[in-house]
Design a protein that fits this description.
single chain; about 350 residues; mainly beta; Beta-galactosidase, Chain A, domain 5; nine-stranded antiparallel β-sheet; five-stranded antiparallel β-sheet; 27 strands; about 0% helix; globular; binds beta-D-galactopyranose
Length: about 350
Amino acid sequence: MANVQESDFGKTKDGKAVKLFTLTNEHGLVAKVMTFGATLVEMRVPDKNGKMGDVVCGFDKLVDYEPKSDPYFGAVVGRVGNRIAKGEFTLDGTTYHLAVNNGPNTLHGGNVGFDKHVWDAKIVQSHDGPSVAFHRVSPDMEEGFPGNLDVTVTYTLTNDNAVRLHYKATTDKDTILNLTNHSYWNLSAFETPTILDEVLMLNADYYTPVDATLIPTGEILPVKGTVMDFTKPTPIGERIEQVPGGPPTGYDHNYVLNGPDGKMKLCARAYDPKSGRQMEVRTTQPGVQFYSGNFLDGTNTGKNGVKYVNHGAFCLETQHYPDSIHQPKFPSSELKPGQTFDETTTYKFSTR
Ligand code: GAL
């Protein structure tokens, strides 16, 4: 029977208790989510023979999630996920200064992003499956961003075998935000150490090229005829060495999703031929950052002693485009008082 169990996941270094919620759906799929970073810690789904496997990167212990060097495994990132050029932006005539924590830029909300906070949580009733809502108020000027931002992220493990994230936020001052989930997927459940043979389709005819510091140049270019093209299912490793930029080599780009912003649409389909596991991503968001685990280098040892090697997992971070505040042609990432940020992403599992 579908249910939610609550347990302790330890205490942060500054003594805050962290809860872990284990969501089990009608078919026995399991998602574990914790209050530190509203993080997806574990995702157990069957392969084509019915064998369960955990398909996300994560750690056994809370202490490993705390350092700044943690690669954002499974976390909700914010207030502004992805990069803001030069750590500053101007809104309504005021210039705001942010932490410069990634080369010359701001990455994933600054020094202490949403992934490093303990969120409130409560089990909620949903007809679709077991569900937990995480909530926090990011105070005015936290990490330099204006406005008290009230955020709720609800995880539901649906009975049709999807993990659904529903993001809602309101503000009391004009601000910017870009919330996403930073799960790293390996559909073989790490039985194959890299994702280079996993086959990916992205529902995107265009992408946003970047400069050497991974800030978009502002162009929106067609993927057709380039190594960026995943409109047809293609093994991730097939052309990865030819991706411009780096080191490190690989994909770390925002794709412009085909279809209307704000409406659920196909984002991506990933398939592992060996295990037969497939994951289909759908979202209301306008873009997705496809990141092929380029900075993973084997130094992180995760759950069950697995070493996360280079390209050991990939991320599909559904989002607004990076650095939108500096790019008038990109969909706006501004939120004003009276408006509600309301976005949904689902990751649905099956086998073939
Ligand atoms: C991704 C980002 C990468 C890298 C990674 C964390 O979202 O696009 O460049 O910073 O997060 O290691």
